[in-house]
Amino acid sequence: MSGITLLGLGPGDPNQLTREAWEILSSAKEIYLRTRQHPTVLNLPTTLKIHSFDDLYEDGESFDEVYAAITKKILELGRREEGVIYAVPGHPFVAEATCPEIARLARDEGLAVRSVEALSFLEPTFSALGLDPYPRLTLFDALTLSQSHVPAFAPDAPVLIAQIYSRVVASEVKSTLTSIYPDEHRVKLIHAAGTKDQLVEDLALFEIDRSEHIGLLTSLYVPSLGEGTSFESFQEIVAHLRAPDGCPWDKEQTHASLRKHLLEESYEAISAIDSDDFHAMREEFGDLLLQIMLNAQIASEEGEFTVNDVVKGIYDKIIRRHPHVFGDVRVNGVSDVLQNWEKLKETERKGKGEKEKGILDGVPVALPALSQAQEYQDRAARVGFDWPEIEGVLDKIAEEIQEVKNAETDFQLADEIGDLFFVLVNLARWKNVDAESALRGTNMKFKKRFGYVEQSAKQQGRNLSDMKLEEMDALWNEAKRMD
Fold first, then answer.
1. pLDDT tens digits, one per residue of 368-399
2. Which of 145, 300, 373, 400 could join 420 in a cystine, given CB atoms 3.0 to 4.6 angstroms apart?
3. 482 — alpha (psi -120 to 50), left (phi > 0) or beta?
4. What's the predicted TM-score (pTM) here?
5. From the CA atom positions of the chain, what is the Rg in Å?
6. Pair (157, 136) in one structural domain
7. What is the domain count for the chain?
8. Domain boundary among 92, 119, 146
9. 297 burial type by CB count under 10 A (0-12 exposed, 13-18 middle, 19+ buried)
């Protein structure tokens, strides 16, 4: 009778084979193993003819390629009159890539599939750790994690990472984890759980790839980073602020009432950046995130959108607008990226059925004037509207200064000063300087120096208004020397 039997060999101790599995193995003539590299294999019935796919691991270029080849072969064998028994370490549907795919494809073509239950690596691992996985343990695959730049799970919950089968994998996993967790974060390596060789190592995260015990049956347990360290936990407390038992002030807020706070927090974050103050940046970015989350929570309550919609929207947009990173588009430098960016945005607008907009129409009118001017110039330059050389900018500055001198009315003077500002912003753009930040830095420098002049006058028991310009200028020069 054709068909496929998917059989779990348990975590490694032959005594942990289920009675059903042992009866099947004892009466079978042959069995196909995903790998012989499992302790239970040595204790299988001697009457069994054993085949394995270990040769595919040696010749295959990737695990996906190996698993696809195994799946194809098992399906072929399953079509035979006698069918096939395919055995894997642990449980057929726990941390096992081949069995779910084999079952899906077999059922699609009408092949019978039988799953023989087994202990997975999880149960003895929980016993070794003395751990109840409820309510929040996360399960994750080491190979997936090793290919990521940051962990794709909430760090305020513990996580069990399976398949740390080599020191190379451990090193790659460590590299990803340390993007979030500190090097000294205490973790546990669990080796050969449920077998006579079981070992649990308690060590710092940075040490995991130094373990000499890492093998095919190794997992990594990473305790929680602490309460409040995940995006989801922050989302929960913001929702609580707006709940019936939340904060009276927060419950009264609307998008309109939060507008000024969003603007203030944005400026405070910019100030922290301009000051190169990392402690302040961390705090101000948090305050800014709170404003975003509050607005998203209000929208969620009104049935408009959720914060997950916000995240999904920008996630998709980043992928869509970076085909040179996530697709097969080739670019040569930043200039190509920016030109392609404009083309992609135009395509998006047409896809949404929006009326055609000018290149400069998407620049917010509420931007500070210097930032707005630089963004206008950046966008125009992307389509080639720019001086070919910086000398053209410098000549234009000289021209605008002369026009300021020649202005005859207040209106003309204001107009020409505006033109001068605009071309100075262009100079900043050519020199890769952010004009808004540059002026803000000069403002801060002026404030600091003038504060020194003011304090020095007070120390002398004098008012600034009583001092001569020469005296204030001398104090100013002292302040400059102290910069």
1. 888 899 998 988 888 888 999 999 999 999 99
2. 400
3. alpha
4. 0.76
5. 33
6. yes
7. 5
8. 119
9. buried
